[in-house]
Amino acid sequence: MEIAIQLAKHIRSLYFGKNWTAVSFKETLADVDWEEASKQMGDCNSILTLVHHTTYYMKVQLPVFDGGELVASDKDSFIHDPMTSAEDWEAVKNEMFQVAETYASKIESLPENIFDKSFADEKYGSYYRNLQGVIEHSHYHLGQIVLVKKLL
Predict the structure, then answer these.
(1) Which residues contact 26 (CB under 8 A, 6 or more apart)?
(2) Higher pLDDT, 60 or 1
(3) Which of 14, 28, 48, 134 is 20 to 30 Å from 114 by CA-CA measure?
(4) Which domains are present in the chain?
């Protein structure tokens, strides 16, 4: 069993459906409109902020797959432009799904012997740790989105 194929499968099922948790970004966000996505409930992040946040971490890791550096900031991962229309929301979702597919495709193309190697720098740990971390992180925030949706 190739680790790359399995990790890519996890990303795709998390974003597009058919995973163990029976919940995905695509299904969860299908009936959320732009105003709901923008609305903040109490101290919770908005759905828009959580979508941006999870997409951010895939985007900053993509250059590493091509030999680039990891340049990321937790603070920046929560900063995004405001939405003012349904078109803006569709663009945000489309970008997230495109990034998720690109991320999964990049993972699939990784050689099997890379997963115990340093991800951009030793301080970040291994490729496996970082890729599995994005999956866990995204599942965590998808759970938050489900709960925020219920509060709305």
Answers:
(1) 15, 16, 17, 97
(2) 60
(3) 14
(4) 3-151 (1.20.120.450)
